[in-house]
Amino acid sequence: MGDMPNQHDILTGSQPDGRAYTDAMDHTCSNYTSNVDGRGQVQLGHTDKQGGGNSSWNSAHGSRGCSQPNLVSTGGAGLLYCFAVN
């Protein structure tokens, strides 16, 4: 069913295969440095894999914008998950 309120969105900035986007669009809110309304968005994943139309937890949809209120209203709390390969 999901969280109430809905807070399953996580900031990943990645495609379903885990790779960074290579197009000209901003999928990371200016490399996670911007909280300005109307400038960019961030690609979001779902911690519970609910919704988004695919089986990828890390790339479900874009945010409504980069500000904290936009991240909350999209369905999260502005949380960032960061992974690296050693």
Question: Could you give the topology of this structure?
Answer:
Blueprint: E1 9-11, H1 29-32, E2 43-46, E3 61-62, H2 68-74, E4 76-80
Parallel strand pairs: 1-4
Antiparallel strand pairs: 1-2, 2-3
What distinguishing features does this structure have?
single chain; 86 residues; alpha+beta; 4-stranded mixed beta sheet; 16% strand; globular
Cα radius of gyration in angstroms: 12 Å
Classify the oligomer: single chain
Q: In terms of per-residue confidence, which ranges show pLDDT below 50 for 5 or more consecutive residues?
A: none
By secondary-structure content and strand pairing, the structural class works out as alpha+beta
What is the helix/strand order?
EHEEHE
**Sheet with most strands: strand arrangement:** 3-2-1-4
Number of strands: 4
Helix content range of the residues, please?
10-25%
Q: Sketch the major β-sheet.
A: 4 strands, mixed
Please report which band the strand proportion falls in: under 5%, 5-15%, 15-25%, 25-35%, 35-45% or over 45%. Answer: 15-25%
Number of helices: 2
How far the N terminus sits from the C terminus, by CA atoms, comes to 36 Å
